[in-house]
Amino acid sequence: MNKIWLSSGVLNSQLAKTGLPLWMLGLGADLLWADMNRLLAFLFHQGVLDEQFLQLQQLQDEASPNFVSEVLNIYFHESEKLLTNLRGLLMEREYKKMEIHLNQLMGSSSSIGAKRVTNVCVAFRAATHHTNRAGCLHALEMLEHEYCYLKNKLHELFQIEQQRALVAGVRYPEQNQNQ
């Protein structure tokens, strides 16, 4: 099982000193909920996520407690394939094919509430429409950066959620970072 670390505030320095997960420090689910909410608020404030992410979360219930993480694992797996394909298509200057891949990535990003990734896809698609290679290169770099940032922050969120679930007595499967 992965160890879960809190990423903000005073607790971060306490954990750095102890090296222990929160539940071993006697910190309860309420504190973990608060940390999850702070991280989500931060991601909304930064424009990383939008209200579509909240709608996705509302689809999760006791009957499907892993729904959001399963959807996001599929999203990350498919997005990485699309990003790899986009890089190859850019080197081959296949602008029309890039637009198709960008439409797919933009649609899936929008459906999970990945606002900044979606916005970069829009700019990237405009650059492909104008066959602007320099603009496409810049947009691809921005897209890869935003995608990695999103993936890292959502992984952090799900680590906290997994820890909260463990404290509450519910067990979620571990997230696979290699997808």
Automatic annotation (TrEMBL):
This is Histidine-containing phosphotransfer protein. InterPro entries: AHP1-5/YPD1, HPT_dom_sf, Sig_transdc_His_kin_Hpt_dom. Residues 64-157 form the HPt domain. GO terms for cellular component: cytosol; nucleus. PANTHER family: PHOSPHORELAY INTERMEDIATE PROTEIN YPD1, PSEUDO HISTIDINE-CONTAINING PHOSPHOTRANSFER PROTEIN 6. One of its GO terms (molecular function) is protein histidine kinase binding. It comes from the Eukaryota. Functions as a two-component phosphorelay mediators between cytokinin sensor histidine kinases and response regulators (B-type ARRs). Plays an important role in propagating cytokinin signal transduction. One of its GO terms (biological process) is cytokinin-activated signaling pathway. Keywords: Acetylation, Cytokinin signaling pathway, Cytoplasm, Nucleus, Two-component regulatory system. Pfam families: Hpt (PF01627). The keyword Chaperone does not apply. Histidine-containing phosphotransfer domain (HPt) contains an active histidine that mediates the phosphotransfer. It comes from Flemingia macrophylla.
